Amino acid sequence: MTVNFYISFPIHDSTKAMTEINDDLVRIRNWCFDNCLLLNSKKTKLMVYGSRQMLSKLSDFRVTLLGKDIQPSLYVKDLGVTLDQILSFDEHTIKNVSSCMSILGQINRVKHAFDRKTLITIINTLFFSKMFHCSSVWSNTAEKNLKKLQTAQNFAARIVTGTRKYSRTPLTRTLKGNEKLFELAGVRVSEVGVKFRLLG
To answer: Per-residue pLDDT for 133 more than 70?
Structure first.
């Protein structure tokens, strides 16, 4: 069982916030004990969100569970999304792109065994479902992260079209003859720049 709870507080009320969180943790602990459920303090994470300026003013913020002090983490993973303290999603992007490129690398090694329609289905299932997971949460990330995601998308397009990385033929021109193929994956070439920005 996973329990998430949130509290918002101004910096000058951080001591009061710690007290309230500790009181809530005691109530959760008691309820778990009463219902014969176990709590694992080692897996309990504390995350404090805010701007860099605000976080720099927050000192010695910690809570206690089962006699163990829990200090704020730099990153936590929730529902497949890695969250950082300032919600830049840098760490999430790094991990997501790394995992997606690994998937594409494996697909690229066996692409000769599939026709294009099947290949698009595989990429859509294994790659895009992972890349765009919870995209509504992290879509406001920095341009540098979007470029990393773009690189992975370009690799996916090259696998399907057979275009080499340093080909003189722009990738967008190659895609023009494959609108129907990409529509099978729920992607339209006319949507380039919105969801599936395929750049040469």
So the answer is: yes
Same domain, 98 and 173: yes
Same domain, 105 and 178: yes
Mean pLDDT, rounded, for 7-36: 88
Model confidence at 186: pLDDT above 90: no
194: tokens are 């919105």
pLDDT of residue 197 exceeding 60 = no
* Per-residue three-class SS string for the chain: CCCCCCCCCCHHHHHHHHHHHHHHHHHHHHHHHHCCCCCCHHHCCECCCCCHHHHHCCCCCCEEECCEEECECCEEEECCEEEECCCCCHHHHHHHHHHHHHHHHHHHHHHHHCCHHHHHHHHHHHHHHHHCCCHHHHCCCCHHHHHHHHHHHHHHHHHHHCCCCCCCCCHHHHHHCCHHHHHCCCCCHHHCCCCCCCCC
* 93 domain residue, yes or no: yes
> Which structural domain, as residue segments, surrounds residue 106?
88-191
Whole-model pTM?
A: 0.72
Contact 179, 188 (CB under 8 A): yes
Within 10 A of 4 (CB to CB), how many other CB atoms are there?
Answer: 9
Are residues 39 and 124 located together in one domain of the fold? no
pLDDT of 132 over the 90 cut: no
